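Take our chain:
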Amino acid sequence: MKSVIILWVFILVIVLSGCVNDWEQHYGSYPETVDQNVWDAMKSNEEISRFVQLLEENQFDTLFKSDDAYSIFAPTNTAVQAFLSNTDNKIDTTLLKYHLSKYFIQLNNIPGNRRVQTYSGKFALLQKSGKIATIDGKLINYESPLFKNGNYFTIEQVASPLPNLYEFFSQNNKVIKDYKDRQDSIILDPEKSIPIGFDEDGNTIYDSVTLVYNIFEEDFFPVSKEFRNKTATIVFPLEDDYNNALTEMAQSIGGSFIDYRDIPVVWQQEILVPYLLKQGVFDNMLEPEAFVWKSSRDTLKLKNVLGDSVQILYTPVDKAVCSNGYAYNYSNFSVPEELYKLEVRLEAESLLDNSGIDRYVWNNKATVVSDDFFVPYKEFVSTASNDSILRVLFPLGYNGNYSLEFKTNYLLPRSYVMTVSTNMDYGGIYDIYVNDELVKTFDYYTFVKYRGGIIPSVLGGFFVPQGRFNKFDFFVENITEFGKPRIRFEYKGPGKVPSQGLVIDYVDFLPAPN
């Protein structure tokens, strides 16, 4: 029995010994340690003497007088000489900081790819495949022992900090930079602000500490910041392609539009840029194959950073690797015609807010001037543009004052055909103003005068009634600035129509033919 116990103990020792050896082989293979300051070790390595000299000249040697641990990626003398042979290159404190990390790095602990934060605050990409290791693609050819306050690696090329997405587009298309910068808001930081009293209305008064809140970075992606595990992909045309597309757009519009400089910046910031961002900002670093259609009959959709599904109708090219994501250009960018050639529609019921069951009030988009109060209604009509209309009814034969004023959606400065979709049974005589200029007087009796309510359009052809709904149109020539034109329907009297009021389904602005 005793011999059996001894045998089992012997087997257990062998097994444990094998486990220990296996553990050390895979997890405990550490470089040797040396009781020496890493700075002294670097100074004794002639292969990196030029880099050591640059650190000393910029007073980085003082970092190593403390017990704080650093990992240093030191370019060889040959690497420094090759880098400086290009007169456009310089080695400054920012570049030196990029070669230092306040984190203790051991290559045997790098599983594959690891984003490492450098002393500059920017992240570098450390990659290891077998025995080959690189930092930002630059080969690491030596790893030192562990010293009292860190270790160092030698690399065969100088590593240059990658731009973040904000820096990349600041250099390659400032439209995104300007758009992002315009989204800054100053808000109160309640955690750091100290309450010091109350005002006469009982509101707390703070000794305020404010912070900058950027709506763009909150909604889309913090392009000016860098993270270890958070990245994005942005597909946006570079500046030359962007301006060329605007020039094509300008020439398509014609008239006073000649090139990209004639397209209002406000239109770009309010219409074009938000559209492109919704179509082209995605979580994570997407490779080009993510945008490839499986067949010509496919419809490729991707979920954008807002969580919306967007159809990919472009081919991203020229991938640029940034410190917090990828940036792509368009292979063939043009401004979508839907943004400037199609009609711009305002649904009339959008001027109302719900105030209860089947109860509505005018919202702040509408201004009503009237001798009497008339309740506005949102009426659901299955054949209407958005399944609903705006309806205001007057007493029979009403002769008082009534006007409704509101702003349209954004319009470029040009000639338009304005179309009003309305009900033929309720109306009167109306003067219609655009930006306080009378552009049309319309008598609803017109629908009665024309047989079957079929009335001519200013573009040729006719408007044919759909049930009791019909349209009328007219030219608008006084929109000379980009913005939201003001529209006013001003009631002039009952005319010959049997019922008075104002019923509008929608108002359209269609760019007029050149």
Summary: The chain has eleven helices and 33 strands. The first strand starts at residue 70 and ends at 75.
